[in-house]
Amino acid sequence: MTTTTAAPRTERRRHSVTHRLRVAAVDRLTDDAVAVTFAVPAELAADYDFAAGQHVNVALPGGDGVRRSYSICSPAGSGVLRIAVKRIPGGVFSSHALTTLAAGDEVDVMTPAGRFTPSFDPDQAKHYALVAAGSGITPVLSIVATALATEPGSRVTLLYGNRTSSSVMFLDELADLKDRHPDRLQLVHLLSREPGSTELLSGRIDGERLGRLLDTLLPPETVDDWYLCGPYELITTARDVLSRRGVERAHVHAELYHVGDPPPAIREEARLQAVTCAVTASLDGRRTEVTVDDPDETVLEAVLRVRNDAPFACKGGVCGTCRAKVVDGAVTMERRYALEDDEIAAGYVLTCQSHPTTPTLEVDYDA
Fold first, then answer.
1. Which CATH architecture fits 18-113?
2. pTM, entire model
3. CATH 3.30.200.20 holds for 277-364
4. Domain named FAD-binding FR-type: which ranges (predicted)?
């Protein structure tokens, strides 16, 4: 049984919604990456206002219905909505972007989301350290540029790993930032498949190399906040190294790439804990009820059966688009990569990873 009733309206829509935007420009970054700039009409400017580090989810009109998540690479406050797309083998949107997409085309774009976002204040004087690999530079570039523009007293160190110099995304933009802020931006390129300027900078950002970089270039005690963006191995390695150096977890923020399916044991454990449940979901001022009686069905999948406007993108626990707050009841999550510890403590879950463990469950997407 499914019912939908009106609920008190929130003052501001908290979850992402989709609008069709025109492509303003497609610029080549490397052989396998482009930057896509969208034209945002004046009436939607407030909806697409973003914080440094946020992302948007995109889909091709009339496509396969699958959404892809891409970080915004332009500085916050610039009024420019720009993403970077790197080719993924078999990727529908990335292949289209690199071969076919052109100015004037239209794309379905969700409003910005994500909490990989520093809280900038012109009166702050901080040292931000960022570690990125490959296309992980996309949100990091926005954070670096915004920090330098917003906080005159702050400085930034960026460790950026790539395979070769020709694969470095935003090479010119980074060099320009370094030229404009020579005393406030320390830019360190590491190359894994061609010699760098020194042995230390010639190789992957693994645990051993990161430890040496901290010893010689970036003493952890001088850093206020860390921002990590890249594949799973880089994030977990960097977290471990920083933890051993005494850096508190609250000062380490991370954004992951897609990490694949969870181990079968984790999925089976979640499945065994799941129970038949009457779910109530509050979304955009409406309360909808739906029953979950399949242990393999997530809360998001159940809600989508009756509310096609439920927010989601990756369905892999990485992007955080499907985040909601548990008002009553409980769930077990297969994965929680997109949530910080304080969010979980406050009752937030990723509905794409959640299975009910109580007979009734109420979640609020507007919270």
1. Beta Barrel (2.40)
2. 0.85
3. no
4. 16-119
